[in-house]
């Protein structure tokens, strides 16, 4: 696996974990962008939205578009992937215990 693919998989996992930690299991693309930055992922807002679309295509999140902001909501399947109960190629599997 290339380093670029490794980063994409980790970024997608982080997005799922962000949503899993939210009380409503949802957040907007702007917040997700900011939290990804805190976790050391320097992405453009467009890249964040691209990841969100990919995650939606896999059935891991749903997206509602409100103007320029995307609101993502974690699905049941997405929660299983975020916690390591399910595996989806293209999303990094969380390590044991965290």
Low-confidence stretches: none
Number of strands: 3
- SSE order, as H and E? HEHHEEH
| Strand percentage | 15-25%
The averaged pLDDT comes out at 95
| Helix content range | 40-55%
Our measurement of the CA-to-CA distance between the termini, rounded to an integer number of angstroms, reads: 22 Å
So what's the overall shape? Answer: globular
**Backbone CA Rg:** 12 Å
Main beta-sheet annotation: 3 strands, antiparallel
Strand order of the largest sheet: 1-3-2
Continuous helix count? 4
Sheet/helix structural class = alpha+beta
What does this structure look like?
This protein has helices spanning 3-21, 29-38, 45-57, 76-82, and strands spanning 26-28, 61-66, 69-74. With 98 residues, the protein is α+β, with helices and mostly antiparallel strands. It has a 3-stranded antiparallel β-sheet. The model has no long low-confidence stretch (mean pLDDT 95).
């Amino acid at each position: 696996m290339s380093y670029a693919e490794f980063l994409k998989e980790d970024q997608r996992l982080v997005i799922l974990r962000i949503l899993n930690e939210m009380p409503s299991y949802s957040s907007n693309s702007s917040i997700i962008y900011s939290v990804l930055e805190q976790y050391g992922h320097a992405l453009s807002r467009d890249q964040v939205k691209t990841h969100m679309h990919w995650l939606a295509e896999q059935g891991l999140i749903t997206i509602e578009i409100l103007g320029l902001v995307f609101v993502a909501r974690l699905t049941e399947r997405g929660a299983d992937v975020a916690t390591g109960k399910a595996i989806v190629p293209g999303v990094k599997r969380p390590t044991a215990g965290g």
